[in-house]
């Protein structure tokens, strides 16, 4: 599976971009999955539910399944945070996995950068950031700059860079 990242400082619009980028890529016939990295502790389970009680009892993994979806909850229980490559092995085979976050990993990325937010960009110090999507013109940029509203342009950049092709 090919992977491509969307990175940027908190609040820059990474998730909003992914919401419109996914359909822009899938309309070309590609299957897309996502991985979202978070620095916060999170729980998609609810206290009192059977699955929550099973995890609290010490289960390393609990799978929730219904006729609409399934989810595998995996407790690290002190293990190191897994690398992207390890996480992807648990996913179904698709054409493209878009990764939100994991900004310090060594995979190709586009940075979402909004100068009006007053935060320093990531791209000057990261050669894995191949392009920048911004809502303003940037000076002294040494890589492609794509208008943040040009969703087709961003999709085309990713598809072209990864040389994604539909199998006949």
UniProtKB/TrEMBL annotation:
Q: What taxonomic lineage is listed for the species of origin?
A: Bacteria, Pseudomonadati, Pseudomonadota, Alphaproteobacteria, Rhodospirillales
GO MF annotation, one: GTP binding
Q: What is this protein called?
A: Molybdopterin-guanine dinucleotide biosynthesis protein MobB
Give me any GO biological process, just one: Mo-molybdopterin cofactor biosynthetic process
NCBIfam families xrefs: mobB
Origin, by domain of life?
A: Bacteria
Q: Which residues form the Molybdopterin-guanine dinucleotide biosynthesis protein B (MobB) domain?
A: 3-135
| PANTHER family the UniProt entry points to | MOLYBDOPTERIN-GUANINE DINUCLEOTIDE BIOSYNTHESIS ADAPTER PROTEIN (PTHR40072:SF1), MOLYBDOPTERIN-GUANINE DINUCLEOTIDE BIOSYNTHESIS ADAPTER PROTEIN-RELATED (PTHR40072)
């Amino acid at each position: 599976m090919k992977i491509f990242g969307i990175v940027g400082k908190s609040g820059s619009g990474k998730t909003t971009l992914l919401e419109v980028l996914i359909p822009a890529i899938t309309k070309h016939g590609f299957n897309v999955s996502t991985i979202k990295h978070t620095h916060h502790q999170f729980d998609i389970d609810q206290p009192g539910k059977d699955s929550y009680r099973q995890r609290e009892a010490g289960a390393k993994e609990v799978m929730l399944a219904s006729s609409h979806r399934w989810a595998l909850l995996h407790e690290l229980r002190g293990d190191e945070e897994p690398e992207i490559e390890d996480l992807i092995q648990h996913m179904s085979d698709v054409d493209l996995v878009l990764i939100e976050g994991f900004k310090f990993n060594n995979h190709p990325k586009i940075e979402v950068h909004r100068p009006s937010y007053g935060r320093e960009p990531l791209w000057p110090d990261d050669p894995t950031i191949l392009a920048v999507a911004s809502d303003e013109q940037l000076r002294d940029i040494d890589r492609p700059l794509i208008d943040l509203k040009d969703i087709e342009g961003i999709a085309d950049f990713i598809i072209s860079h990864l040389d994604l092709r539909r199998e006949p």
